[in-house]
Amino acid sequence: MRGIFVLLTMALVMGCATEPATFEELVERLDATEQEIRAKQEEIQTTIATFNESNPDRQVDAESLTNMALNPDHEAVLNEMLASESDVSYRGLVQEIIDTRGEVAELQQQMQDLRDDLPAPYTVQRGDSHIQVALQYLMENHGLSTAEARDVVEQTALVEDLNVGNQIWLLYTDGILGTYVTQGTADMSPGRAQRIARARINRTIATLTDERDAAEARAAFIADSLGQVKDMLEERIVFLRSEEERLNGQIAMLTDARDEALAQRDMEEQAKLAAEMKLNSIFYAVNTMDHWKDSMVIKDPFFGGPRVESLSGVDFAQSQDLREGTVLTIERSAFPSLDSIKKVDVFPRTFRDGQDYVVAFHPSGDRVSIELLVPDNFAGQNVLFALRD
Fold first, then answer.
1. Beta-carbon contacts of residue 340 (< 8 Å; ≥ 6 apart)
2. So what's the pLDDT on residue 86?
């Protein structure tokens, strides 16, 4: 990695793409050109495959003909084949490959011209992360301290999911870090990787919705226990929708932060600590079961247990940094309507008593402690507690 950063430094000294806006534009054009070259090469393979399907008696060796088409030294051979071939369909195949090779050659020249205007990229290896590469680049190439490098990186939008072979482009000038990730030799582009991750979330929601619909169709013919399963799925979807809204809000905040990073170069350490605390904290709301029912937050049907109906009126204002402690203590004095605390319901009900958490009641009934056995399951989550006497 150190050798790559030295090449980046040499390129910057030569004055390549010194403006962050120009740098990002050139990298985007380079990425688009690489994608177009891949498309052209796939077009050649598709053309040969289509020919073979239509000509079962005259199969073409796709690999050898493609390599010849992509090698400039073999252009004369291709042209000779084209001139001497009497089979019209085969002549058409060779002509199309020659034409496509010419387009690829032009794109490759364009790509080389773009690379000449950019600093050398870093190629992602197994175990690399965008933040790790950016920090090392700032410290080794520009002499920034660890704290200074982290301040700069905090203001920059980074790609979370990298694949081996992706290329990371970096440029630091006037206190601003410009960075962009292209596909390189990886099997998929960063944009496609993010779309796949997003599709995975959508599939999860769709699967849960399908399960809910199936439960509704069976509810008229099966026992009340399956009706409870349906209710739990509906409740889980409510929490997933709430989580989706929270994630969309965070994405919007990160996008705004990226746009503001060009103008705002310093970020206070307290803001960073607050963001870390949010990612490592549980956010919860506590009240009596009667209060939640009256507020239309919890519905308690005649058959089946209580379930969350809506979170629109709930403010998850209380929080606990799980790095500092995993025990939540609730005092009865905050809820005058209770004579004592004898039962605590935890929502969503997918959190399991004895596995995810354990509840301990004080003998006096004046307080209750909830120990989170698996803190990672609660980190960044909204949780509702309902107290009963």
1. 332, 364, 365, 366, 389
2. 46
pLDDT in tens, 114-169: 555 557 788 889 988 898 988 888 999 889 999 998 898 888 878 877 888 888 87
51, two tokens: 């020919």
pLDDT given at position 103: 60
Torsion over CA: 75, 80, 83, 87 (sign): negative
- How many CB atoms neighbour CB 236 within 10 A? 19
Residue spans of the chain under pLDDT 70: 1-24, 26-28, 30-34, 37, 41, 58-118, 191, 197, 218-227, 257-258, 261-268
Query: 14-35: buried (b, 16+ CB within 10 Å) or exposed (e) per residue?
Result: eebbeebeebbebbebbbebbe
CA distance 38 to 189: 12
Least Cα distance to 121 among 29, 19, 27 occurs for: 27
CA distance 153 to 136: 11
User: Which of 174, 154, 179 shows the shortest CA–CA distance to 253?
Assistant: 154
The token pair at 205 is 């929601």
Structure tokens given for 143: 């002499």
159 neighbors 261 (Cβ within 8 angstroms): no
Cα–Cα dist 335/386, whole Å: 11
User: What is the Cα–Cα distance from 133 to 139, expressed in whole angstroms?
Assistant: 10
CA 220 to chain CA mean position, Å: 40
Q: pTM for the full model?
A: 0.35
pLDDT tens-place string over residues 264-306? 666 667 777 778 888 999 999 999 999 999 999 999 887 778 9
Q: Which tokens go with 177?
A: 């870090």
User: Taking CA 190 as the corner, what is the angle to CA 189 and CA 194, rounded to the nearest 5 degrees?
Assistant: 120
